[in-house]
Design brief:
This protein is an all-alpha fold. It has eight helices and two strands; from the N terminus they run αβαααβαααα.
């Protein structure tokens, strides 16, 4: 891949961020609690998750092994962080779901499949080929530290949500404890911190583009989930914010 093509893909991710934010502020994506008819064919949500997240593992790995710096110590730390998140998200998280019979519109994993493929190419190529990373770089360790904090928040919040349901249950309950004391969607906050950390660790436009796109995707969803909880549960804690404690 030429440098010009790589830059075009980065600019494509950057351009997708404001467009995604604009669309999702007015339209809730049809999956989870916002699933509804009228969006075409559907598939089981477990397989939808696997389909849409798999390029982040497989395409990323394929591009990575071709990189000139793929097996150097600092890039290997970046590889470990990326795959730690996405192997879990692709091949572990879907099988932790207790949502028997839940479905999502096929449109969602189709769009995500395209984005995750492009994003995997951009970030794998940056970290394994274009970037010049060393263990002495402060940004590497600061970024990986933020990533680790974000992932811990994300995993804990997901676990709280998954444990709300007993086997066979499909309804919704109000999550409590941890950062749920302060915000409706600490899982989204954690994921945004992960990719902010990635952007700092890679110190790249591609990493920044991914963080901005993630934020554009998750911020509207957090606001929609917050509104849904407040409308559905009359006793929903009024002090909670949607995404950022005491702020938003």
């Amino acid at each position: 891949m030429s440098a010009e093509t790589h830059q075009l893909l980065v600019y494509g991710v950057l351009a997708a961020a404001p467009l995604t934010l604009l669309v999702l502020l007015f339209l809730s994506a049809p999956y989870g609690r916002h699933m509804r008819d009228g969006w075409g064919p559907t598939l089981p949500n477990r397989w939808g998750w696997i389909l849409m997240e798999s390029p982040a593992v497989l395409v990323f790995s394929w591009v990575w092994v071709q990189g000139d710096h793929a097996w150097e110590p600092a890039p290997l730390l970046l590889l470990a962080a990326w795959q730690l998140h996405y192997v879990h998200r692709t091949f572990v998280f879907p099988f932790r779901l207790k949502t028997t019979g839940k479905r999502m519109a096929l449109l969602i994993p189709t769009i995500a499949l395209v984005f995750n493929s492009v994003n995997a190419v951009v970030n794998a190529r940056q970290a394994s080929h274009l970037g010049d990373y060393g263990l002495s770089q402060p940004t590497l360790w600061i970024g990986l530290g933020v990533f680790a904090v974000g992932m811990a928040i994300n995993l804990h919040a997901d676990t709280v949500l998954l444990n709300l349901r007993k086997p066979g249950e499909t309804g919704y309950k109000v999550p409590m404890g941890g950062l749920y004391r302060f915000v409706t969607c600490p899982n989204y906050l954690g994921e945004m911190l992960e990719w902010l950390g990635w952007a700092v660790a890679t110190w790249s436009l591609g990493g920044l583009a991914f963080f901005l796109y993630t934020s554009a995707n998750l911020l509207p969803r957090a606001l929609q989930n917050h509104r849904w909880y407040r409308e559905t549960f009359s006793d929903y804690p009024s002090e909670r914010r949607a995404l950022v404690p005491y702020v938003l």
